[in-house]
């Protein structure tokens, strides 16, 4: 596996600052922040710069919960709204079984860029990927690719642990 060297930064102005730490089990991200949604994002972002096409996958081992909407995401962030992302949200009661049920803590996330096409995939074993979103958007050649975590609670941080990274920068 090609493990990237992530750099951590808080995006927005979360009340509680986040951290990115390399651990034996993988990458530990502590994060505050109100949300990753809408007009005002607040989260901790562990990223690597990439150019042109890429494929990155990671496994989410654990995610502490501060709120029903605590989130951990595999993210292509361009510092503008409407950035493509794939993610894990906490289990919630749903009226019917979705096509892509939440499989946390056994969840793998993959983000693929081919030109202006971003493909989001997930699975529960790192092998049999299911596409759940294909997004077309004109993108700059340079981007920040990484893992984003928000507690969705201004006064609490959460911890997410990711492992089994693989990054292929195809430029």
Give a brief description.
With 171 residues, the protein is mainly beta. It has one domain: Sandwich (Jelly Rolls), CATH 2.60.120. The protein contains no helices and 12 strands.
Report what the structure shows:
This protein is mainly β and about 170 residues long. The protein has one domain: Sandwich (Jelly Rolls), CATH 2.60.120. It has no helices and twelve strands. The strands form two sheets. The protein has a seven-stranded antiparallel β-sheet with strand order 2-3-12-5-8-9-10, with no helix packed on it. Strand 6 (about 70-75) and strand 7 (about 85-90) form a beta hairpin.
Features:
mainly beta, Jelly Rolls, 171 residues, 12 strands, single chain, five-stranded antiparallel sheet
Going by helix content, strand content and strand pairing, the class is mainly beta
CATH T-level topology: Jelly Rolls
Share in helix: under 10%
Listing every helix as H and every strand as E from the N terminus to the C terminus, the arrangement reads: EEEEEEEEEEEE
Tally of alpha and pi helices:
0
Beta-strand percentage range: over 45%
- Whole-number mean pLDDT: 78
> Uncertain spans, ≥5 residues at pLDDT below 50?
77-98
What is the general shape? globular
Q: Architecture, CATH level 2?
A: Sandwich
Report on the biggest sheet.
7 strands, antiparallel
Total domain modules: 1
């Amino acid at each position: 596996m090609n493990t990237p060297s992530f750099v951590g930064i808080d995006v927005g102005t979360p009340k509680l600052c986040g951290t990115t730490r390399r651990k034996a089990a993988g990458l530990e991200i502590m994060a505050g922040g109100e949300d990753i949604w809408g007009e005002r994002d607040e989260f901790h972002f562990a990223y690597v710069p990439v150019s042109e096409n890429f494929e990155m996958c990671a496994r989410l081992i654990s995610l502490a919960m501060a709120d029903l909407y605590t989130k951990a995401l595999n993210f292509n962030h361009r510092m503008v709204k409407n950035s493509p992302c794939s993610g894990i949200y906490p289990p919630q009661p749903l009226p019917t079984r979705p096509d892509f049920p939440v499989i946390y803590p056994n969840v793998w996330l993959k983000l693929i860029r081919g030109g202006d096409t971003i493909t989001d995939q997930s699975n529960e074993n790192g092998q049999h990927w299911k596409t759940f979103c294909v997004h077309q958007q004109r993108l700059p050649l340079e981007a920040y690719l990484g893992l984003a975590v928000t507690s969705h609670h201004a006064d609490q941080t959460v911890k997410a642990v990711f492992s089994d990274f693989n990054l292929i920068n195809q430029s």
